Amino acid sequence: MKKALLMAAALLLAPMAAMAADYKEGVHYTVINEGPETAKPEITEFFSFFCPHCFNFAKTVVPKIEANLPEGVSFNQAHVEFIGREMGVEMSRAFAVAQQLNVDEKIDTALFSAIHDKRQQFTRPDDIRAVFIANGVEAKAYDAAANSFMVNAQMSKMKRDTENAKISGVPSLVVNGKYRVETSSIKSYDELIDIAFYLATMNKK
Fold it and tell me: How far from 118 is each of 23, 42, 83, 115, 122, CA to CA, in Å?
């Protein structure tokens, strides 16, 4: 009986192993630089608050990624500036401010909802500031963070990482700072997650 169970388990795992082995550079992922990978395994999602697909991704896919991350792999996010014209830059600032103030989960949800559920128009920085204040952030704390060195540094890094990874559409996943998952090759978000996990851990095997 034990032998039969082991054989059954092996058969179940075999398609998954075969699938992982079929992931090919240039088809399922692209090597975005010739340098070394990040010191620690990580998956970074590039997104925009203005992107409806990112809104759906935040609700349905990000929780799956976070709940099933392989051991030792971290999950990060980076906001892109190229959607929303000048307000794209301000939304990147908002994302960085929320992280610096440790209110990112609340503010990210509020901004996504304001744009996609309430259809609110964001045309100036004060529109974003108002969302922070409405969600319990003191105006003084927001103003100090919005103009801080840490926020400006994070914005610069997100922009640099976006350019280095040649991100032209979102949501997009970059793994270990070296591999960009090619969404055109996937059949489902589950496959997208599987490819990202495979890339994050393939050099640990």
Answer: 40, 33, 19, 6, 12
